[in-house]
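User: My notes are a mess, but here's the protein and PBG's SMILES. Can you give me a structure?
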Amino acid sequence: MSGTQTQRAAVRFGTRGSLLARTQSGQVADAFAAATGREVELVEIRTEGDASSAPLASMGGAGVFVGALREALLEGRVDVAVHSLKDLPTAPAEGLQVAAVPPREDPRDVLVARDGMTLGELPVGSVVGTGSPRRVSQIHALGLGLELVGVRGNVDTRINKVASGELDGVVLAHAGLSRLGRAPEATELLDPIQVLPAPGQGALAVECRADDPLAEELRTHLDDPRTRAAVTAERAVLAGLEAGCSAPVGALAEVVEGEDGEELWVRAVALSHDGAVAVRRSGSGPTQDAGRVGHDLATEMLGEGAAELMQDDETGPHGHPTPSEAVT
Ligand SMILES: NCc1[nH]cc(CCC(=O)O)c1CC(=O)O
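Assistant: No problem, the inputs look usable. Here's the predicted complex:
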């Protein structure tokens, strides 16, 4: 490598400590290094969400995963933070900016089940693990008679519960499996017509300090405007519904080729916790109006009673508390 590169300090990428976090942060850092020739370094930041196995809802929801990284960024201990976009609160962070949203992975959820089974093939009464209220309510809505139980922990831990026979299946994000090279273990890719992913699922946010000239470089080399438009619309739905990351809300936006160029299509669902009632809507508009398209969709859904649905009694149909500990 040439001498000029070593004269500049390495760009420090902050990451959570899980294998998935380190893998995705490493992939972003490597892409940045390859595009710019700059030196990069991964710095592991321990978060409250990783240190504790308490229900996430009791720690302030998904925000616990990003708080420590953001602190490290603001204090100058790292230059860049890579987050799973769906774990990022919709409110902007003071002093920080999302400099880039790289091209998205497959946003869908997947099932990893015993004996290669799909949701429809699992016998009535089968036990499926997922801690996400969004997944619980949408799977309940399919009326398959599956029992849903909360699981937390990393991808490995969750999949192992199927291998060990403790669970008949687990539902997780395809993106997580795929970044770890384990996508072939999925036994079904869940069709968004039945199970809409979490807003931002499969996408990453590359964050840096608001006043850092590094932002321009990150954007130029890592940002994918189509992914950014899609997740902007999805997160506008979530924000418009005034729902948190653990609410039973799914949203998926795609950029499609319309008659007058690119157009954004958004589908969204808000459900009661038991999945018995849902408001499902879609909308479209120009890609450059992504935020408005998502917000208008949320307004329409609120008019159909989406807010009341989600505030339902949080107990499932059999009086069991619906797991609300996991972010999805
Ligand atoms: N819930 C935590 C979380 N945050 C991001 C991912 C997966 C990667 C992504 O969606 O980008 C996961 C795991 C999962 O939902 O299975």
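The radius of gyration is 20 Å.
User: Great, I'll file this with my notes.
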